[in-house]
Design brief:
Residues 1-22 form the signal peptide. Its main location: periplasm. One of its GO terms (biological process) is transmembrane transport. This is C4-dicarboxylate ABC transporter substrate-binding protein. The protein is 44% helix and 19% strand. By secondary structure, the protein is of the alpha/beta class. The chain folds into two domains: 6-147 and 235-275, Bacterial extracellular solute-binding protein, family 7 (D-Maltodextrin-Binding Protein, domain 2), CATH 3.40.190.170; 151-233 and 280-308, D-Maltodextrin-Binding Protein, domain 2. The strands form two sheets. Strands 1, 2, 3, 4, 7, 8 and 9 form a seven-stranded mixed sheet that branches. Helix 7 links the parallel strand 5 (168-171) and strand 6 (186-189). Helix 5 (113-126) crosses helix 6 (128-135) and helix 7 (175-182) packs antiparallel against helix 13 (306-321). The termini are far apart.
């Protein structure tokens, strides 16, 4: 396995010895520290709260900006102990984490950001298979970071589904490619980091995203029309931990971390909501992004498309194979 820096190798070696007694836990994230968005600020809050709640006995050192593992390497890096904690961008791994990526197979869906986070907590509580999927890969979920409701950021104004025919739209995962094809548009698979340049160079015409993320990644510098297309909130990240590191904690510290994971979701949600309000104000002012309505019924009508239904059926099949009775889960994700 090849890692991006020699730091990762040194870190892996240091974690091999005495992990249970370690007072400094490591957190790896692809996010730059200077991003100053809800993701980075809430993570800083998490770090500070952990130190405070453990009375300074333990702390967390964050390795920002993919310096230890790139976004696509994080699950494996955590599983091997190249970091104690980290962000797993769940939609990038629909095959590796099919149960925990349920939201990613059901787009569009009606849940808000808060409701998505609540659903993940509920599913982990009621269906042990969700946690088992992580445990089998030496991982443990500390918390969940849902994203905001998504619309479509475009370089040209879009008024109806007809305007999307032939447009090139950024895509990832399973549901978006099928949904974009149902729009008669062209899905273009891109990572988040590659999408700015793709929009700037008109390699793609649009990208599904929420306002706060669009501002965070500065997509709104190169695409000036935000279409209120009701994709629903996206499930973003599992705040995950190496299972050995988690089990190696003393009972008191583990209890602190468990409660902190619950409190984190509340704090993050508040930051995200405030950030979206601020971004929309900036769009109306100095950033000059035009927000356009979209007939939501045109999008929800595409749920009956054969390709979209095939993606949903694929998740149901995976759930059945895992022994999950999925009726209650799927009911949450239907309009």
């Amino acid at each position: 396995m090849t890692w991006t820096t020699l730091t990762a190798v040194a870190l892996a070696t240091s974690l091999t010895f005495g992990a249970a007694e370690a007072k400094t836990y490591t957190y790896i994230t692809y996010k730059p520290q200077g991003a100053n968005d809800a993701h980075s600020r809430s993570l800083q809050w998490f770090v500070e709260e952990f130190a405070k709640r453990t009375g300074g006995k333990h702390d967390i050192e964050v390795f920002w900006g993919g310096s230890v593992a790139a976004v696509g390497e994080t699950p494996e890096a955590l599983a091997y102990g190249v970091g104690d904690m980290g962000d797993i961008v769940t939609p990038y791994f629909p095959d590796q984490f099919p149960l925990n990526n349920a939201i990613g197979f059901f787009i569009p869906q009606p849940l808000s950001s808060d409701a998505v986070a609540e659903a993940m907590v509920e599913w982990h509580r009621d269906y042990p298979q969700f946690a088992d999927e992580l445990t089998s890969q030496n991982l443990h979920a500390i918390s969940f970071r849902s994203l905001e409701g998504y619309g479509l950021l475009c370089k040209q104004p879009i008024a109806s589904m007809t305007d999307l025919a032939g447009k090139r739209i950024r895509s990832y995962g399973f549901a978006y490619p099928a949904l974009i094809e149902a729009m008669k548009a062209i899905p273009v698979s891109l990572t988040t980091s590659d999408t700015y340049e793709a929009l700037e160079r008109s390699i793609v015409d649009c990208a599904p995203i929420g306002p706060a993320l669009a501002r965070g990644f500065k997509y709104d510098e190169v695409a000036k029309y935000y279409i209120e297309m009701p994709f629903g909130a996206s499930f973003g990240h599992i705040l995950a931990m190496n299972l050995d590191s988690y089990q190696g904690m003393d009972d008191e510290t583990r209890a602190v971390l468990d409660q902190l994971g619950i409190d984190y979701m509340v704090e993050y949600a508040a930051m995200l909501e405030a950030e979206e309000v601020k971004v929309r104000e900036l769009w109306q002012g100095e950033l000059g992004v035009t927000v356009l309505p979209f007939p939501g019924e045109e999008l929800t009508a595409l749920i009956d498309d054969t390709g979209v239904q095939a993606v949903r059926a694929e998740w149901e099949s995976k759930a059945t194979d895992a022994g999950v009775s999925f009726d209650d889960i799927v009911a949450k994700l239907r309009f």
